[in-house]
Design brief:
- Chain A: Its cofactor is thiamine diphosphate.
- Chain A: InterPro entries: THDP-binding (IPR029061), Transketo_C/PFOR_II (IPR009014), Transketolase-like_Pyr-bd (IPR005475), Transketolase_C (IPR033248).
- The complex is a heterodimer of chains A (about 325) and B (about 375).
- Chain A is built from twelve helices and 14 strands.
- Chain A has about 325 residues and is an alpha/beta fold.
- Chain A folds into two domains: about 1-190, Rossmann fold (3-Layer(aba) Sandwich), CATH 3.40.50; about 200-325, 3-Layer(aba) Sandwich (Rossmann fold), CATH 3.40.50.920.
- The termini of chain B are far apart.
- Chain B has about 375 residues and is of the alpha/beta class.
- The chains are: A alpha/beta (about 325), B alpha/beta (about 375).
C-alpha cells in the first residue's frame, strides 16, 4: 500500500499502462515537458520519448481526429483535454466519429481510445475551467463514460479504460487531484474492481446518497455528519456514468426507501434525472419519498467568487435528506 | 438575363475562359498530349487503354446508381459525373500499401483500389452505414461529415511515421491520401489536418477535388485565393492540376505520394474539375448555375479527350471502344441485380456492434425489443 494523491495515482496508472503496452500513446496540449497543466503526465515524456508522449498543436478537434487515425493504425491513444470547457471543439469528432466508428463498420474496427477530461469546479478558476459536461457524452451511444473519485480508483480505472477496446470518456475530479488515499500498486490489474460498476462506499439503512467524481467526497462527509445526528446514510459511487450500473442502486433503495442524487452539473436533463427515472421504474413500491436531486443550478457556471454557492455541499445534501424524510 | 445568369456574369465568366495559371496538364481537352517540365510521365499503350476503361466503367456504374435512386432502389446517390479523371488518376496513382480516406463521392477511387463497387451501395440503399474494414481494404469507410476524415487520415499517416514505414523503398514505404472538396476547405477540421500533417511531417497527400460547388455555393463563398495556394501558409507545397486530365492527375498524385512516403511531408493537390451533375440526387442544380457554364465544362470532358488521344495514337479501334462500353454495361447490370437482391437487415441487428465489449443497457433493450415483437406473433 502506498499513500498517494489522486493526481499521482493517475500518473502512475498511465505509466504502468505505457509499460504494459507499447501501443499506448499520450496526446494533448502541454502533456510533454510540462507534464500537463495539472502534472498528470509528469515525467512520462522523459521516460517514454516524444513519439509516445506527444505535445500537440492547440486544436482539440485535431487532437481527437488524429487520435482516431492513430487508433485505426493500431495505436491506443490516451488524449488529454486540458479543461472540461475546452472539449467542445472536439465534440463533433467525439460524437460523430469516435462514438460511431465501430457501429458504422458493423464491428469490423474498434477505436480503443481514452479521452481524459479534468472536470468540475471548486478551484477558483476563470470561465470554462469548472464545467461538468458529462451528460453530453453519456447521452451518446457508442461512448462509455466513467468518473473516478479517489486515488485507488484513479490508479485502476485509468488502466482499465486504456485496456478496454471501447472508446471511453474519462472524467477526473480536478479539485480532488491533491487528496490522498491508499493505493495497492502491487496488485494485478485483473484484481481491480470492475470498471463499469457502481460501488457502495458506506453502508447505511436510512437513505441512499448517489454521486460520482468530486461529489463522492462531499456525500461521504455528509454521511459522517448525518451519523452524528443518528441517521445512517448509504453512499454509492456510481463510477460508470454510461452505462450506469443500477443493480447496487436498486438494492440499496429497496432497503432505504429514500434516494438523493448529487452532482455538480446543472440538474435539468442531467445524470440525476436518468438515475431518478430508473429508480422510480424499478423501485416504485419501495420508495418512501420521491428521488431528490442536489445539483448545480441551471445557469452558466458562475464567477468563482460565488461558486461555493453554486456547488452542492454538505449542507445542501443534508437539507435534501431532511426533505426526503419530510414525505 | 436571369438572376442566375447575372450572377454568373458578375463572376467574370471565368468558368468558360482559359485554364487558370499553374494548372498542370498533360492532355488537352482536344486530346493533344502536352509536356510539363516537372511531370514527364510515360504511359504504355496498355496503361492508356486501362485508364480509358476505368473512366468509362466508373461513369457507367455511377449512371446505374443514379438510375437506381430514381427508381427508388437507393435512398440517395452522390454522383461523381465529371470527376472521373480526378478519381481514376489519383486512385491509380496509389500504391498497393497506401491508405485512402474518401468522402462519400469517391466511387471511382474505390473502383481503382480493386474493391467490389457493391461495397458502398448498402450505405446509399439504407441497409447499412458502411460496414467494411477500412484497413483491410486500404480504403476508409465513407465519411459524411464534411472534412472530418482529413484528420483521421493525418493521424493514420502520423502512425506510419511511428511505425518506421517512411523511407526510400517504394514497395514498402506507405503514404496516405485524404479526399475532400472545395467546400471542406472552409472547415476547421481540414485546416487542423493541414497543421498536424505539417508539424509532424506526416506522409499524406491532401487531395482536394475542386468541383466548383459546395451543393449550391460557388467557390467564391469558400475562398478569395486559389485553393492550392493555401498550402503555402501551412508550410508545404500546393499544386493545381487539371482534374479532368487523367494523365496529369495521375502524374501529380503519384509524385506527391512518393514524396510523402520518402519523408518529404504533405502536399496539397487541387484537382480543378467540375461536378457535371447534382450534389446528390436530392439536389436541383438548375436553381444555382446556368446551362452555358455546364456546356463549357462539357467541352472539357475527361473521357472524350482520352478517346481522342487513343484514336490519334492509333492504339485503340472501334472494336476496343465497343468492347469497353459493353463490358461496362455488363458490370452495371450486375451491380443493379445485386442491389435489387440486397436484403433488408433484421431489425434486431440495429442493437449490434454499438460497443466492442457490449453494454448491459443495450442487451436489455435488445431483449425487450424481441419480447415486444414476439408478443405480436400469431395475432392478426
Amino acid at each position: 500500500m502506498e499513500t498517494l494523491t489522486l493526481g499521482k495515482s493517475l500518473n502512475l496508472g498511465l505509466r504502468r499502462a505505457m509499460e504494459d503496452d507499447p501501443k499506448v500513446l499520450i496526446m494533448g496540449e502541454d502533456v510533454g515537458k510540462l507534464g500537463g497543466v495539472f502534472r498528470i503526465t509528469d515525467g512520462l515524456q522523459k521516460d517514454f520519448g516524444d513519439e509516445r508522449v506527444i505535445d500537440t498543436p492547440l486544436a482539440e478537434a485535431g487532437i481527437v481526429g488524429t487520435a482516431i487515425g492513430l487508433a485505426l493504425r493500431g495505436y491506443r491513444p490516451v488524449v488529454e483535454i486540458q479543461f472540461d470547457g475546452f472539449v467542445y471543439p472536439a465534440y463533433d469528432q467525439i460524437v460523430c466519429q469516435v462514438a460511431k466508428f465501430h457501429y458504422r463498420s458493423r464491428g469490423k474496427v474498434s477505436l480503443p481510445m481514452v479521452i481524459r477530461i479534468p472536470f468540475g469546479g471548486g478551484i477558483g478558476a476563470v470561465e470554462h475551467h469548472s464545467e461538468s459536461p458529462e451528460a453530453y457524452f453519456s447521452h451518446t451511444a457508442g461512448l462509455k463514460v466513467v468518473a473516478c473519485s479517489n486515488p485507488s480508483d484513479a490508479y485502476w480505472m485509468i488502466q482499465q479504460a486504456i485496456a478496454s477496446d471501447d472508446p471511453i470518456i474519462f472524467f477526473e475530479p480536478k479539485r480532488r487531484y491533491w487528496e490522498k488515499g491508499e493505493v495497492d500498486t502491487a496488485a494485478p490489474l485483473s484484481s481491480a474492481y470492475p470498471l463499469h460498476s457502481s460501488r457502495v462506499l458506506r453502508s447505511g439503512g436510512d437513505a441512499t446518497l448517489l454521486a460520482y467524481g468530486p461529489m463522492v467526497r462531499t456525500c461521504l462527509d455528509a454521511a459522517t455528519a448525518a451519523a452524528e445526528d443518528g441517521r445512517n446514510l448509504e453512499v454509492i459511487d456510481l463510477r460508470s456514468l454510461s452505462p450506469l450500473d443500477m443493480a447496487p442502486v436498486f438494492e440499496s433503495v429497496r432497503k432505504t426507501g429514500r434516494a438523493v442524487v448529487v452532482h455538480e452539473a446543472p440538474g435539468n436533463i442531467g445524470l440525476g434525472a436518468e438515475v431518478a427515472a430508473r429508480i422510480s421504474e424499478e423501485c416504485f413500491y419501495s420508495l418512501e419519498a420521491p428521488v431528490l436531486r442536489v445539483t448545480g443550478y441551471d445557469i452558466p457556471y458562475p464567477a468563482s467568487r460565488v461558486e461555493e454557492e453554486f456547488l452542492p455541499d454538505l449542507d445542501r445534501v443534508l437539507e435534501a435528506v431532511d426533505r426526503s424524510f419530510g414525505f | 438575363m436571369t438572376k442566375v445568369e447575372r450572377a454568373a456574369s458578375r463572376r467574370g465568366g471565368k468558368r468558360s475562359g482559359p485554364p487558370e495559371p499553374e494548372f498542370v496538364q498533360l492532355l488537352t481537352p482536344e486530346g493533344e498530349r502536352v509536356s510539363h517540365p516537372d511531370y514527364s510521365v510515360d504511359f504504355t499503350d496498355d496503361e492508356l487503354r486501362g485508364l480509358y476503361r476505368d473512366l468509362v466503367t466508373v461513369r457507367k456504374l455511377d449512371a446505374e446508381a443514379t438510375a437506381l435512386q430514381r427508381q427508388g432502389e437507393l435512398g440517395i446517390w452522390a454522383s461523381l459525373l465529371g470527376q472521373e479523371a480526378a478519381q481514376v488518376g489519383s486512385g491509380r496513382a496509389l500504391r498497393k500499401q497506401d491508405m485512402a480516406f474518401p468522402t462519400y463521392r469517391e466511387h471511382g477511387v474505390l473502383y481503382c483500389r480493386n474493391i467490389d463497387p457493391i461495397m458502398p451501395l448498402g450505405l446509399f440503399r439504407g441497409v447499412d452505414q458502411g460496414g467494411w474494414d477500412p484497413v483491410a481494404h486500404r480504403f476508409n469507410m465513407y465519411t459524411i461529415v464534411i472534412g472530418a476524415q482529413t484528420l483521421h487520415a493525418t493521424g493514420y499517416a502520423m502512425g506510419i511515421v511511428k511505425d518506421g514505414k517512411v523511407g526510400d523503398d517504394d514497395e514498402t514505404s506507405e503514404a496516405v491520401i485524404a479526399y475532400f472538396g472545395d467546400g471542406a476547405t472552409s472547415q476547421g477540421d481540414v485546416n487542423e489536418a493541414f497543421i498536424f500533417g505539417s508539424v509532424y511531417n506526416a506522409p499524406i497527400v491532401f487531395f482536394c477535388q475542386n468541383n466548383q460547388y459546395a451543393i449550391s455555393e460557388p467557390l467564391e463563398r469558400q475562398t478569395r485565393i486559389p485553393l492550392y495556394q493555401r498550402a503555402a501558409g501551412f508550410g508545404f507545397p500546393g499544386i493545381r492540376v487539371d482534374g479532368n486530365d487523367v494523365l496529369a492527375t495521375y502524374a501529380v498524385t503519384r509524385a506527391a505520394l512518393d514524396n510523402a512516403r520518402h519523408g518529404q511531408g504533405p502536399t496539397l493537390v487541387e484537382a480543378y474539375t467540375y461536378r457535371m451533375g447534382a450534389h446528390t440526387t436530392s439536389d436541383d442544380p438548375t436553381r444555382y448555375r446556368v446551362a452555358s457554364e455546364v456546356e463549357a465544362w462539357q467541352a472539357k470532358d475527361p473521357i472524350v479527350r482520352m478517346r481522342k488521344l487513343l484514336e490519334k495514337q492509333g492504339i485503340a479501334d472501334e472494336a476496343f471502344f465497343a468492347a469497353v462500353d459493353e463490358q461496362a454495361k455488363v458490370e452495371a447490370v450486375a451491380l443493379r441485380e445485386r442491389v435489387l437482391s440486397m436484403p433488408d437487415p433484421d431489425p434486431a441487428t440495429m442493437f449490434d456492434h454499438v460497443y466492442p465489449t457490449g453494454s448491459p443497457l443495450i442487451d436489455k433493450q435488445r431483449a425487450e425489443f424481441a419480447t415486444y415483437h414476439a408478443s405480436f406473433e400469431g395475432s392478426h
